């Protein structure tokens, strides 16, 4: 069994994990700012400047998605000096890494005097594993290093992948999360793909996973089960998520009555409505919607769901020993849910 | 591992789905490997004007409608289309169908380097002509890399399936195979469709070209006069099952997956790290319960860049000593198909094991003494292979090595063989 022993979040509430914890506990929506792009508004990480956050060394060619991930990784390890080396893995979720980096690179190829007048130092940014690779480089993580992609379910797929690294003995500690940046490229892609969707958010949320009983620090939650499935027609999403929830609760050896709180990823319609309907029917309230709080963070949404449960459970006697659910429905045809047993431990 | 393991812990390959520049489907791909075909031809995917050379390895005459019936092919980018075609081929090759898989729990793991970056290329061109407001919503809606795996599941009508896209660059195919191995052994799925897919795109061609990694005409792994890689595309999907399940349905078993290893260099974003690559091979061998002298053939990452081939050869020598097994570079035939590369190479390894031959490294003139490997130059040779190692090294220092074995139904003392 895998336990979560630390977490971090760089979010629209602020660049520090404590900003996210405070914002979620107050249940206040993070403010939207004005941006250049369709919709004109976004919930970006306030004051997040790559060089201010990470220094000048090694950041000259770094893109925002990578920087958000490297910053969240750094915060996760801030008080965990023992976590590094050959047996420590990193699993990072993404959708298109930085669509902006990819499209800027192509734009240079199409507009410069020669089609190969592109910046070679930025080429790795255009490959989807850039954030995971840089996270490892910055923090000396030489164990299994993987990047997974799955729309708004991404964070749950990362959790599954990371848990299996434990179970198969391929890593001791695994840092696991997902990242999404706001960029004009992403805003335009989303504008065309999901017109009228929620305001876009961005950020990176991560957890430190360790084998149960093997954590060198307090256990915040136990990962009891993670389940994912695929639906064909949009009308099937609710039913497929409902089935997923049933299987996950059964696999976890628990029931809906034991659920203390559900974090729904949220996102564009009709997925968000299907998600809420399935959760309401299966387990009822209370529900916290990540998209309502910090905007549609897409690949990072479910990881923020995990972080929100950890923030809300910390020091809450009502949560201790009970179950937290994280759910996500993606318009691309994927659903997922995670079942966590909250310990209630952690800084309040 | 090996001889003492029950059938439920053993993972076997029962279906192959290659989509490549030298042939689509197991039979044509096998013929291509045996005869040392080259997929090299002038690139047609994008306008190559302004580049000094334009040779790549594209999948010729790919007809999406032949492979995609349940979904609308227009809703899928070319990488997803390749993945769907390859998965369909693998399922058919295994004597199965979507309908027969639907009531079983499954895994779909598709590796990729670029996802649908080819579509992003197209949108940039559209933007330059008429602004981003002009983007085609259908194209904008299909760019998420996650669609490579959901498209496979949806085309086959699979719902009770974990569909994950593993975007670990040019080692992604091996990552997906390794993940499937763990999932099946844990009993979390009854079958797995795993491999990788990528489509030719301007972005990646321009990037490798700028790095000086692109060869003008041909890919010559381990050759003294090698000039780099050729940009390829395609997909390789393998159907994996646990041995007990495969036997219960009377499946034709093509090979066994013995184990795998992953390491991260945590060092340089693009240059391979010899120590880390050697460590990855050792982890894979340990996981498979195989000693280096039991490996009969290595399918190298072998991009044919100066740096990769020397670093990889040195790492191989560190693990295997001064007389390493034959080490072939399939990219000489297929080009570098990125996320599909180690998946197509794994398909090649399975065919080599099952058919008893070592595929060649074509375009070979003179072996680089700094590499010093028997790369099976130019012509395939008959070979009694029992265990084959498949290497993959990616940008970001992400290494993945998979060990495959000829399947033997009765114990003969070899790892991977069934115990008494």
Domain count of chain A, please report it. 2
* Proportion of beta-strand residues of chain B: 15-25%
At the fourth level of CATH, the homologous superfamily of the largest domain in chain A is Thiolase/Chalcone synthase
Q: What is the architecture of the largest domain in chain B at the second tier of CATH?
A: 3-Layer(aba) Sandwich
Query: What is the CATH architecture assignment of the largest domain in chain A?
Result: 3-Layer(aba) Sandwich
The succession of helices and strands of chain A, N to C, reads EHEEHHEHHEHEHEEEHEHEHHEE
**Sheet/helix structural class of chain B:** alpha/beta
What does this molecule look like?
The complex is a heterodimer of chains A (348) and B (420). With 348 residues, chain A is α/β, with parallel strands linked by helices. Helices cover 35% and strands 23% of the residues of chain A. Chain A folds into two domains: 2-211, Thiolase/Chalcone synthase (Peroxisomal Thiolase, Chain A, domain 1); 221-342, Thiolase/Chalcone synthase (Peroxisomal Thiolase, Chain A, domain 1, 3-Layer(aba) Sandwich), CATH 3.40.47. Chain A has eleven helices and 13 strands. With 420 residues, chain B is of the alpha/beta class. Chain B folds into two domains: 2-248, Peroxisomal Thiolase, Chain A, domain 1 (3-Layer(aba) Sandwich); 258-405, Thiolase/Chalcone synthase (Peroxisomal Thiolase, Chain A, domain 1, 3-Layer(aba) Sandwich), CATH 3.40.47.10. Chain B has 14 helices and 16 strands. Chain B has helices at 26-35, 64-67, 78-93, 98-101, 117-130, 137-140, 147-155, 172-185, 202-210, 243-248, 274-288, 306-320, 331-334, 341-355, and strands at 11-20, 23-24, 41-42, 55-57, 106-111, 161-166, 191-198, 231-232, 234-242, 255-264, 297-299, 326-328, 357-358, 381-382, 387-394, 398-405. Chains A and B meet through helix 4, helix 5, strand 5, helix 6 and helix 7 of A and helix 5, helix 7, strand 6, helix 8 and helix 9 of B.
